[in-house]
């Protein structure tokens, strides 16, 4: 750190009965009062260098041995005044980045200019500031921090703006060209809501491109914001480096945000805590405004941590929406834990804020909509009319195809993420069924290669909400595609008493059909389904009468394992029975959906239909007999 010494005389200031004076044989003739402190000094050394004191002494008549001058609003207080007074007496003073701002403001207040005396204090301070302070990195940072204590004076004198411009120029320059006297390494405890600690460790081991981030993190938010704006306007620092610097700053100034919220909707009780929340809110919104526009400049995990903090600190809706939009751009990089954002609103009964996740998913789907691709040209025509414009079109087409492929891959990743998120929130007893279904249906059907994770989420929701009626359980299970369940999940679903019977039978049907089409042996039915389908001979009678009415030949019938005849047209009978059941249970609300599912089942190959014709008929007959 640079410093400068002025004067050569020893310090002769003494304190006597709370009065500061100069140990001198000459009797003092001037009393200066600075913010409650009194100084017994001499007119000649002070008035010869301070134009303001000259004017005030000339305006106030001498009424006694001592002329009194009042300086109630002196910038920098008694320390700064004594520094200027010692300079007037020729006493040695030491200037550095820690006191140059106060000394410069005090000298300006006393008007210690060149017009009063050549080589006055203002001139010497300006030379030291421009040649030494601004040439060093740490000196510039410290000086900029000190300006916070003298905001108006520092702005008027241009100290703040010069420090910011100097810091920005050093960041834009190569680190080897910067005089780095020392870097800060103070680090306190971190909170996972503000910044990922692992990311901070990665930063410390990272490239020298972010050598300045930790030092700038010591600045207050207003000075930091202005410095970052100056750095970004230079256009030389990559967006990823700006993102790293913002993450370091958030880690420094947003600790322990979680203390402001809990699952019981924390209420602020005192004014000091309310002021603290307000300061953190302003800081957070300033960080959000500095986020680079480029995708991937900051990690999705960091964005979601900012969103958690925004939720807790009750940031503005525009800030939350901006974060949700940015998260939607790179949602495929998020984790389930990142999406578990605490709900702190008094109008929200759920543990986690599912509304903001719905908004993120909507933003994601808007961002991944890829443009339609044009059809491929025939190779012969393409080769015959090859030109530069044709090459450009081909490159654009290939780029479009790559974008479409990346979009499809993102949807596959997000689908797994959504299913994992649903499993985490499904046990919340206050989670409405409509929001659960909205989140599940936010991702297109093709994005889920299997429905195993979705089934697990549905099973957790059913266990956590035992009060669901039959209609609601059917509505919930309608988002499940039984054809995409693995064998292990099918085995679990077949014995799951919480699922509607229609879903259980549908699971069995597709599993048996899949086994039959692959040429394997049909697996034995679970014991609970066997018990449900046992001893119902009325089904065979109904089937025989139905076959007679439909005039179906006996050759088209086939024998099952028990020796009973079951016609192919029992699928039609099943469809009518399920339609009737839906009419009774749901008052025609779900008739179209049920019929469409049955039609989907009826397009399967004949053998699986035969295999399950008796199974479905018997199951419905058993339910009817139990009701009677």
TrEMBL record:
ATP-binding recorded as keyword: no
UniProt keyword Lipid metabolism, yes or no: no
Keyword terms of this UniProt record: Ubl conjugation pathway
Signal peptide: none
GO BP terms, alphabetized: protein ubiquitination
Record-linked SUPFAM superfamilies: POZ domain
Family matches, as PROSITE patterns: NPH3
Domain of life: Eukaryota
Domain NPH3: 210-514
Pathway involvement of the protein, from the record: Protein modification; protein ubiquitination
Pfam families: NPH3
Listed PANTHER family: OS12G0117600 PROTEIN
Family: Belongs to the NPH3 family.
Identification of the protein by name: BTB/POZ domain-containing protein
């Amino acid at each position: 750190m640079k410093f400068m010494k002025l004067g050569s005389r020893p310090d002769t200031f003494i304190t006597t009965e709370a009065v500061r004076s100069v140990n001198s044989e000459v009797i003092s003739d001037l009393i200066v009062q600075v913010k409650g402190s009194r100084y017994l000094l001499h007119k000649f050394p002070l008035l010869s260098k301070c134009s303001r004191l000259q004017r005030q002494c000339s305006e106030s008549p001498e009424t006694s041995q001592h002329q009194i001058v009042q300086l109630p609003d002196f910038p920098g207080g008694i320390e700064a005044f004594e520094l200027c007074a010692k300079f007037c007496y020729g006493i040695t003073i030491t200037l550095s980045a820690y006191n140059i701002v106060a000394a410069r403001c005090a000298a300006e207040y006393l008007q210690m200019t060149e017009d009063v005396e050549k080589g006055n204090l203002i001139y010497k301070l300006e030379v030291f500031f421009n040649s030494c302070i601004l040439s060093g990195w740490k000196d510039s940072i410290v000086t900029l921090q000190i300006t916070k204590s003298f905001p108006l004076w520092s702005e008027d004198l241009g100290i703040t703006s010069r420090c910011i411009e100097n810091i920005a120029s050093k960041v834009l320059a190569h680190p080897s060209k910067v005089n780095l006297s020392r870097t800060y390494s103070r680090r306190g405890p971190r909170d996972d809501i503000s910044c990922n600690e692992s990311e901070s460790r990665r930063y410390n081991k990272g490239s020298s491109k972010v050598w300045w981030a930790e030092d700038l993190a010591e600045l207050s938010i207003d000075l930091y914001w202005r410095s970052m704006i100056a750095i970004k306007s230079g256009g030389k620092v990559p967006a990823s480096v700006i993102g790293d610097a913002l993450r370091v700053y958030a880690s420094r100034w947003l600790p322990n945000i979680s203390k402001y919220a809990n699952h019981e909707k924390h209420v602020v009780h005192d004014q000091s805590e309310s002021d603290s929340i307000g300061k953190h809110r302003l800081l957070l919104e300033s960080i959000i405004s500095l986020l680079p526009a480029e995708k991937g400049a900051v990690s999705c995990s960091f964005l979601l941590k900012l969103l958690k903090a925004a939720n807790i600190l009750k940031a503005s809706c525009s800030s939350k929406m901006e974060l949700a939009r940015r998260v939607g751009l790179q949602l495929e990089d998020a984790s389930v834990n990142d999406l578990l954002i605490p709900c702190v609103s008094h109008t929200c009964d759920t543990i986690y804020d599912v509304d903001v996740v719905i908004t993120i998913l909507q933003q994601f789907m808007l961002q991944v909509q890829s443009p339609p691709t044009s059809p491929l040209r025939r190779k012969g025509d393409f080769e015959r009319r090859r030109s530069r414009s044709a090459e450009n079109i081909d490159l654009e087409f290939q780029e479009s195809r790559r974008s479409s492929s990346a979009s499809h891959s993102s949807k596959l990743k997000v689908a797994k993420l959504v299913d994992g998120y649903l499993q985490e929130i499904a046990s919340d007893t206050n989670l409405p069924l409509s929001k659960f279904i909205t989140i599940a249906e936010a991702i297109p059907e093709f994005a889920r290669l299997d429905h195993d994770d979705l089934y697990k989420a549905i099973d957790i929701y059913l266990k956590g909400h035992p009060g669901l009626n039959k209609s609601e359980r059917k509505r919930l299970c309608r988002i499940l595609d039984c054809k995409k369940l693995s064998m292990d999940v099918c085995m679990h679903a077949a014995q799951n008493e919480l699922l509607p019977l229609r879903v259980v039978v549908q699971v069995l049907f597709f599993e048996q059909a899949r086994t039959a089409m692959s040429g394997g042996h049909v697996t034995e039915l679970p014991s609970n389904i066997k018990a449900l389908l046992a001893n119902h001979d009325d089904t065979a009678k109904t089937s025989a009468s139905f076959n007679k009415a439909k005039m179906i030949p006996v050759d088209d019938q086939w024998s099952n394992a028990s020796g009973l005849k079951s016609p192919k047209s029992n699928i039609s009978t099943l469809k009518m029975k399920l339609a009737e059941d839906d009419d009774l249970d749901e008052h025609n609300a779900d008739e179209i959906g049920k019929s469409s599912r049955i039609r989907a089942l009826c397009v399967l190959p004949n053998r699986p239909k035969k295999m399950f014709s008796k199974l479905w008929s018997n199951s419905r007959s058993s339910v009817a007999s139990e009701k009677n």
